[in-house]
Design brief:
Layout: E1 3-8, E2 13-19, E3 21-26, E4 29-33, E5 40-44, E6 47-53, E7 56-62, E8 65-69, E9 73-78, E10 81-83, H1 89-105, H2 112-133
Helix pairs in contact: 1-2
Length: 136
């Protein structure tokens, strides 16, 4: 039984093809998905999504979003999906440093929405840097 993976961001469809397996950064930890998996819907945390196709494992840095899993399909809806070649390490590092500095200067009890926004930037930047800096 094949497993169809589809990764979509607000801008475009990133990937759509048959794969052997998928590993997702779920909100409660990493999840492995194989064909005939039980149906589920899960929140995704920024991190590394991996899939295997024709014996080749591909990793993508993703942002937050949702995964919908059926026995034969995995739909990923995320606000960011970048391959290693698309990640600018210097820009990701700078974005993370700016967000960390801003986080130090705002009142966490008053600006909860801004705190969440800055924490999301940090988490996405960390996901990109982790993927970019891992040994190949």
């Amino acid at each position: 039984m094949p497993l169809h993976l589809e990764i979509v961001t607000p801008e475009k469809k990133i990937f759509s093809d048959i794969v052997t397996n998928v590993y997702l950064p779920g909100a409660d930890g990493e999840m492995g998905i194989l064909p005939a998996h039980s149906a589920l819907v899960s929140a995704l945390a920024p991190g590394e999504l991996r899939y295997e196709k024709d014996g080749v494992v591909t990793a993508i840095a993703i942002g937050s979003g949702f995964a919908e899993v059926t026995q034969e399909k995995v739909n990923i809806l995320t606000d960011m999906a970048l391959g290693d070649e698309q990640i600018d390490e210097a820009k990701a590092e700078a974005a993370m440093q700016r967000a960390e500095e801003q986080l130090k200067t705002i009142d966490h009890s008053i600006d909860a929405e801004e705190v969440a926004h800055l924490q999301a930037i940090i988490a996405k930047s960390m996901a990109q840097l982790k993927l970019k800096r891992r040994p190949h």
